[in-house]
Design a protein that fits this description.
Elements (H helix, E strand, L loop, with lengths): L37 E3 L2 E3 L23 H10 L3 E2 L2 H6 L14 E3 L4 H14 L3 E4 L16 E4 L6 E5 L4 E5 L4 H8 L4 E2 L10 H6 L7 H4 L2 H4 E7 L5 E5 L11 H5 L8 E8 L1 E2 L3 E8 L3 H13 L6 E5 L1 H11 L9 E8 L1 H17 L3 E6 L2 H12 L1 H7 L5 E8 L5 H14 L6 E4 L4 E8 L4 H20 L15 H8 L2 H12 L14
Parallel strand pairs: 4-6, 5-6
Antiparallel strand pairs: 1-2, 3-4, 7-8, 8-12, 9-13, 10-11, 10-12, 14-16, 14-17, 15-16, 15-19, 18-20, 19-20
Helix pairs in contact: 1-3, 9-11, 9-14, 10-12, 10-13, 14-15
């Protein structure tokens, strides 16, 4: 196949060679003398227990079928707030991804942490899997139910429990969405800035360690969660962290659950950092002659200390499709940066002027900036609708959106290599990303029933991940591992995956919490 050879070192990557490594390929689960070594990034790691033992079978889970003790107990607990309707189950059996729905046996709608605890106790007693569900916007098969079980839909746990304006924090139930929270906060002069694009639930955002367009200034969910209430696999209710801005007390269990994707427990409440709404917000757009020029201007912007709130990059193809879909006027199909500035009136103007000067040095054109809320909303809605702009170009096909993240100094190189590879493989793949932190997304359009096309897409995504890891990056900056990237997790972290598996079994010894995600047990 034309394009990049994954076995050839990437420029500047030294002798690192990324070889595809799959969990099922490893012939050992416990250290033994005749275990063959595994290779990651060209470095030999000795006998390890990260693989699945030969002949290892799925655990004997108990399905929540009609008439089963688990279903009868849950119906007694929840009444009409549990359903076995196939339409509801299928809706909850997939996210916004190309995975075919794999429904659970029933869907529950709890109202409190205590109800979640009772649901989990019933499932634990019957060895029935549990799949937490937020709004269904995940992208790596996180909510599929490969072993059946019970989906816990958190959408009716949607209360803002407290706002501590003086301390800039709040506590919410897991079903509260980010837009709902910001609407609630509007009259307080405060905001929650993490914006993954979709109106995701804050529980789901916490579980996937989400970030988004504002991460370059405000960080990810990891930096913005102060504490959690979590229902463990045996039904215990555990509180982690707190409202203090710092603590040295014991293990940081909060960070353990942030990004755990429902595999360690069910997050029911989140204590979050808040921020003051800036005095002034302005947005700008600038187009560049090449992706390299655009990325180089971003690097200089950050090095210059400009406190930009967002710097988003769209390649020429993505910009072309976005212009058509969102009816953007005055732009061309060229590599483009979208900026947003937060601060005082004078501060925002200074930031915009500095960025314009930097853009001029890298051949930037069509620099436009606006403080109009209506114009800003239109611009950022266009950016967030990139996925739908792509789908509109191929009616009847499904989208596969995948992401990687690399050090920003390697971003241009990775973007250009990815463009070359996807085109050589016969695809038109728009690229959009968070240029300020090196995270970008590729949107493949495919027919999942076309086995040849699906294989070519998977080959491309595998090379993309290999390329990112070889450059010192990660297989996912914000989508998470789910069911779709478990093998890539091994390629990235090697022996550390065995520690992840040990932690999983310590928290969830019967493997009932969202089994089949992150690590295989």
């Amino acid at each position: 196949m034309p394009g990049l050879d994954p076995g050839i070192p990437c420029s500047g990557a030294g002798d690192a060679r990324v070889k595809p490594v799959h969990d099922d390929d490893l012939e050992f689960a416990v250290p033994r003398s005749n275990a063959r070594p595994a290779y990651f990034l060209g470095a030999m790691i000795g006998p390890t227990n990260i693989g699945k033992e030969v002949g290892m079978t799925d655990q004997a889970y108990v399905r929540a079928e009609t008439g089963s003790p688990v279903l009868e107990a849950l119906q007694e607990l929840l009444g009409e707030r549990i359903t076995t309707s196939m339409a509801v189950r299928e809706h909850h059996g997939r996210g916004e991804d190309y995975f075919k729905p794999i429904p659970s046996d029933a869907v529950c709608f709890p109202h409190s942490t205590e109800e979640v605890s009772e649901i989990v106790k019933i499932c634990a007693a019957n060895h029935t899997p549990i799949i937490p569900f937020g709004t269904g916007t995940s992208l790596e098969g996180h909510v599929t139910a490969p072993h059946g079980g019970i989906t816990i839909d958190m959408s009716q746990m949607n209360d803002v429990l407290e706002v501590n304006a003086e301390d800039l924090d709040c506590r919410v139930q897991a079903g509260v969405t980010r837009k709902q929270l910001n609407e609630y906060l509007r009259d307080t002069g405060l905001m929650f800035p993490i914006d993954p694009g979709a109106d995701a639930s804050l529980g789901g955002m916490t579980a996937t360690r989400a970030s988004g367009t504002n991460a370059v200034r405000y960080g990810t969910m990891k930096e913005n969660v102060l504490g959690l209430t979590v229902v463990m696999a045996d039904g215990r209710i555990v509180k982690t962290g707190g409202r203090a801005k710092k603590s040295s007390a014991g293990y940081d269990l909060t960070r353990m659950f942030v990004g755990s994707e429902g595999t360690l427990g069910v997050i029911t409440e989140i204590q979050l950092k808040l921020y003051g709404i800036p005095e002034k917000i302005a947005s700008a757009v600038c187009q560049y002659p090449s992706l390299k020029n655009a990325v180089d201007s971003v690097i200089l912007t950050i090095q210059a200390g400009v406190p930009v709130a967002r710097i988003e990059i769209l390649d020429a193809l993505m910009m072309d499709w976005t212009i058509d879909y969102a009816d953007l006027k005055g732009y061309e199909a060229k590599p483009t940066l979208f900026y947003e500035f937060h601060g005082t009136e004078a501060g925002v103007e200074e930031q915009a002027n500095t960025v314009r000067e930097i853009a001029d040095d890298y051949g930037g054109s069509a620099f436009q900036w606006t403080a109009s809320q209506e114009e800003r909303n239109h611009l950022w809605q266009a950016r967030h609708d990139g996925y739908y702009a792509a789908l509109a170009k191929a009616p009847g096909k499904q989208g596969l959106s995948t992401d990687v993240c690399v050090p920003i100094s390697r971003l241009a190189e990775c973007l250009l290599a990815t463009e070359q590879d996807t085109r050589a493989s016969g695809f038109e793949v728009p690229i959009v990303g968070h240029a300020g932190d090196g995270n970008f997304h590729c949107i493949f359009l495919l027919d999942p029933d076309d086995k040849d096309e699906l294989k070519r897409v998977k080959d491309c995504t595998e090379r993309l991940v290999q390329r990112a890891i070889a450059m010192g990056g990660t297989c996912t900056g914000e989508h998470g591992i789910g069911a779709g990237k478990m093998d890539f997790l091994i390629a990235e972290h090697g022996e550390a995956v065995s520690l992840m598996r040990t932690l999983k079994l310590a928290f969830d010894p019967d493997n009932i919490m969202n089994p089949g995600k992150i690590v295989r047990v």
